[in-house]
Design goal:
mainly beta, Rubrerythrin, domain 2, 20% strand, Rubredoxin, iron ion binding, iron, Rubredoxin_dom, Rubredoxin-like_dom
């Protein structure tokens, strides 16, 4: 599973954890997250996220 970081605020979406608060179940791959989903921290769109490696 991968992680994606918002380049605006630094919030990280972890595919393993999903984001249940927005109805995104654990294990949801980034490609399956709806195109209109917004960063829960700053409201940036999916286009403002980059794959993140620890």
């Amino acid at each position: 599973m991968n992680r994606y970081q918002c380049v605006v605020c630094g919030w990280i979406y972890d595919e393993a954890q999903g984001w249940p608060d927005d109805g995104i179940a654990p294990g949801t791959r980034w490609e399956e997250v709806p195109a209109d989903w917004k960063c829960p921290e700053c409201g940036a769109g999916k286009e403002d996220f980059e794959e993140f490696d620890l």
